Amino acid sequence: MGVSLQGSGRAGRGRRGRSRPMAEINVTPMVDVMLVLLIIFMVAAPLLTVGVPIALPKTAATALPTEQEEPLTIALTADGQILVQNEVIERAALVPLLRAVSEERKSDKIFLRADGAIPYEGVMQVMGALNASGFRDIGLVTEQGGPKFDGQDG
Question: Which of 14, 76, 100, 121 could form a disulfide with 114 if both were Cys (CB 3.0 to 4.6 A apart)?
Answer without folding.
Answer: 76
